[in-house]
Amino acid sequence: xxxxKRIEQIIPGSIADEIxxxxxxxxxxxxxxxxxxxxxxxxxxxxxxxxxxxRHQEGDLVEYEIEKDYDETLGIVFAxxxxxxxxxxxxxxxxxxxxxxxxxMRKTLYVKDDDYRLSFLTGSYITLTNLQEEDLARICxxxxxxxxxxxxxxxxxxxxxxxxxxxxGKLLPLLKRLAACGIQFHTQVVLCPGLNDGAILEQTIxxxxxxxxxxxxxxVVPVGLTGYRKGxxxxxxxxxxxxxxxxxxxxxxxxxxxxxxxxxxxxxxxEFYTLAREPLPPAEAYEGYPQxxxxxxxxRIMLDAWENWQKRLPxxxxxxxxxxxxxxxxxxxxxxxIVDRLNEIENLTLKLVPVKNHFFGGQxxxxxxxxxxxxxxALKKVKGTLYLSSVMLKAGKDLFLDGYTIQDxxxxxxxxxxxxxxxxxxxxxxLQLK
Length: 434
Known about the structure:
Layout: E1 5-10, H1 15-18, E2 26-30, H2 38-44, E3 49-55, E4 61-67, E5 76-78, H3 116-122, H4 133-142, E6 147-150, H5 156-163, H6 171-180, E7 185-191, H7 199-209, E8 215-222, H8 240-261, E9 266-268, H9 270-276, H10 298-309, E10 316-328, H11 329-342, E11 346-355, H12 372-378, E12 385-389, H13 406-413, E13 417-420, H14 423-431
Parallel strand pairs: 6-7, 7-8, 8-9, 10-11, 10-12, 12-13
Antiparallel strand pairs: 1-2, 1-5, 2-3, 3-4
Helix pairs in contact: 8-9
């Protein structure tokens, strides 16, 4: 087994860059210790005096004596976020999104990771069903907290059915064992009508609330259904009526928890409010937005940013400006009033295009799952610069889910494409304000 770890990237200006390390070199050991994964590496590189042994691409073995600050990293990036193989998922969830994906996409999109290290390092959600005794011991010993846990149901029988894994029913004992070590959790439930809502959801919230403050928060998210479910379990989407029932249940628990513990504890994703056509809670009701990755509070942040920005809007632009904004169907409901107000600015003509998701089909309406093919189909003729949210692209790259790039889109539409991170970024670029 290869113990040397290949360097994928060197961060410019870092210690590793200064001493001449390059992508393609190998880390042999650090202070004589051979790190097996990223947790070992981060602990090892935190020292102030290090002896780093590198095997360069040419084969030379070189030792580097390094002095640095305790919290300063070496600037070495490895090919895998865990340095070794990512721990894979052993479940066969009835609602698994990966199982609902079209064929012939990037291989990495079909990876089902369930790695406690990534949960601690990046906030990815895990099920705790593939942990060995040594993993549990290591989580406690290194105090890897908080962890992000996909619960779905605390009732053993319901969780086993949802995840099709006999080990799935052992969740509560695992949470209690890790909680006894001082580990805290953010949790989520992917809600499937008729399977884990209603009384099952009530039990789930009650069981997790009983573990507060070890369990810090719970997000309730509706199941995502694509058009690629042939041969899969028959699931139904949430509707106006069923979404309202979920919100009533969540709001009742929030009222109880706020009174008893000073926290709302459980939060519904923005999609439930959109489906139920209910107003979003105010910013303070999100308690610092700990569940943004689950789509809890993203719209509220955007609307509050817009409220502040309206005070800065000019009455007129210096030159006539045309632009187009492409977004998912669900976000268009909130963006249209913003676009209408911006069109009151003299010399600005802005068009909002809600893009239907043909690539995934089904009930997929979020902006982050739009593809090059969806945009091409919806944008027959673009006026001015086309603005897109960065959530459509692979993190750090100009790549859509179907493998095409921003450059491909710009060329196909014969227009300039501008990627923006959020509403303030969009307004600054559109209005050319600082």
